[in-house]
Design a protein that fits this description.
single chain; Glutaredoxin; 5-stranded mixed sheet; globular; disordered N terminus
Length: 115
């Protein structure tokens, strides 16, 4: 079965500046920011959140059903499914959709500055 269309997993961020980026605001303050864009009900959103909590990762959760600007932002990134995880660091930003343990490990749980 062919893969669903959309941005490649873990692609580097390029986004229109007119859309609000929650991660950039936090990254400016703290060096690394993790934002979980999700909704209820969402099994993959819940699994991602459990993984963050298990590893004591500081993150911001944004409900895209209640925040139209956030929904516009993830749509501008090319996503139409939740969750979208957005990681902003001084080196650059990366984002993906779905519960992806490899991306979480590479970009969050194995980073000293993300914990």
């Amino acid at each position: 079965m062919p893969a669903a269309p959309g941005p490649p997993a873990g692609r580097r961020a390029t986004h229109p500046k007119e859309h609000m980026n929650h991660a950039e605001e936090i990254q400016t303050r703290e060096g690394v920011a993790v934002v979980l864009y999700g909704k209820k009900p969402c099994v993959q959103c819940d699994a991602t959140e459990r993984k963050f909590k298990k590893h004591n990762i500081h993150y911001t959760k944004v409900d895209v059903t209640k925040d139209e600007t956030a929904l516009d932002f993830i749509k501008a990134l090319g996503y139409s499914a939740a969750p979208v995880v957005y990681v902003s660091t001084i080196e650059g930003d990366v984002h993906w959709t779905g519960y992806d343990v490899e991306q979480i490990a590479e970009h969050i749980t194995e980073r000293q500055d993300a914990a």
